[in-house]
Amino acid sequence: MYEPLISIIVPVYKVEKYIHRCIESVLHQTYTNWELILVDDGSPDSCGRICDEYAMYHDKIAVIHKINQGVGAARNTGLHRAEGEWIYFLDSDDFIKEDTLEKMITFSNEGFYDIVMAGHSILKSSGKFIPCSDSWNESDDTSTIQKKILLDELPNFSCGKLYKRILWENVYFPVDMLIEDMYINPTLFYRAKHICIHKEALYYYSYENTDSIMRSKTRKTYIYNRYCRFLAWEEHIRIASIYEADLVPVCTRKALLAAIKALLLYYGIGCKDSRVDFTSVRFYKKASR
Question: How high is the pLDDT of residue 137?
Answer without folding.
Answer: 92
